[in-house]
Amino acid sequence: MTPPPASSSFRPRVLTGDTPTGRLHLGHYVGSIENRLRLQADYDCYFLLANMHAFTTRADKPDDIRRDTLEIVKDWIACGIDPERSTVVLQTEVPAIAELTWFFAMLVPFNRVMRNPTLKTEIDSKGLGDTYSFGFPMYAVGQCADILAFRPVYVPVGEDQVAHIEMCREVARRFDQLYCAVDSHAEDADYEKQGGVFPIPEALVGKVGRLVGIDGKQKMSKSLNNAIFLSDSAKEIKKKVGQIFTGRQSMTEKGDINNALFEYVRIFIKDEARVKELERAYAAGDNIGDGHVKQEVAQAIDELIGPIRERRAALEGKDGDKKIIEIIRHGTKRANKVAEETLAMAKDAMQLGFGGRNEMLPG
How far apart are alpha carbons 92 and 95 in whole angstroms? Predict the structure, then answer.
């Protein structure tokens, strides 16, 4: 979905983010990062580092989570996220998010949370069985608070996150109906006009909702070891693209242009005429091997990643870490003003407004 253009006098708010699990890969780029880059020129963008959520499965690895938090911001900045135009937010330094999570947990039945298909997929893919922490399913509610704390109208995500956004929309409707007397038959676009605290946010899925990994089967993922990272060298990219399985045996065998390799052709080779020619020759078995196609794909991916890789290299080392930490601190300070305003509005609607937080803290 492409959002309508923002007016010169009003910049609608956008919120999205990533859980720190390691470096970002191509799936993140085409699924969400590209959308973020387009939106930050005309929208009030907030990009959240969900480091609290990382503890739901890695509570015993705080050092890794801290490192991965810095690594993700390096990837963001290298891709083109501009901290002067967009706000980088550290989840654990925004206390309003935790409070809203608690309130929202009262509005969502437990069985609804556990029916979330993304949650069920993560339990299976990470092999959690029934050993996951009590906090793990809470992160699905926490994501609602991550988003609604900033009252955005759009949330750029990959296809696999749409289910989370739908639950967030349900929570926003439920809160506004219960505490703000918004008519349950109101159109989503009218909730704020009818006095709701929260707008009903819309998911913005990138041009590629789900990029298949180099195994040709599963979604690209670090945990599945099938990812091409945004910091990979040209040599690593060539090696990984070479692993994409097609099942084709010879250059004269008619090929399936709907396989994983040609998904990459259509996404990363920008010359449309060349894409059509590759499709024609491959489908006809016209003396074109998988190796040749892979070489062109690897070159196209490196042309995309090369500048990102160079900008990222400039952020390495202690000086780079200091710069990233300053970006996080500056953005989070700005974000807390918005989140505290949202929390005050929500607490007033819930008849919990007995004075501002700062007024009740010891002087």
Answer: 7
Domain containing residue 179: CATH number: 3.40.50.620
171 vs 145: CA distance, rounded Å: 9
Q: How far is CA 273 from the centre of its chain?
A: 32
Q: Give the range of the structural domain holding residue 341, as residue numbers without chain letter.
A: 13-210+318-360
- Residue 189: name the closest of 181, 180, 198 by CA: 198
Q: In degrees rounded to 5, what are phi and psi of residue 289?
A: -90, 160
What pLDDT does residue 3 have? 60
User: Is 204 found in the same domain as 191?
Assistant: yes
Q: What is the pLDDT of residue 362?
A: 67
DSSP string, 300-339: HHHHHHHHHHHHHHTT-HHHHHHHHHHHHHHHHHHHHHHH
Tell me if 95 is assigned to some domain.
yes
Whether pLDDT at 7 is above 50: no
SS3 124: helix
Q: Where are the alpha helices (DSSP H) in 106-245?
A: 110-114, 117-125, 135-148, 162-180, 234-241
- pTM of this prediction? 0.88
CATH number of the domain residue 262 falls in? 1.10.240.10
Q: What is the pLDDT of residues 139-183, one digit of tens each?
A: 889 999 999 999 999 998 878 788 889 999 999 999 999 999 999
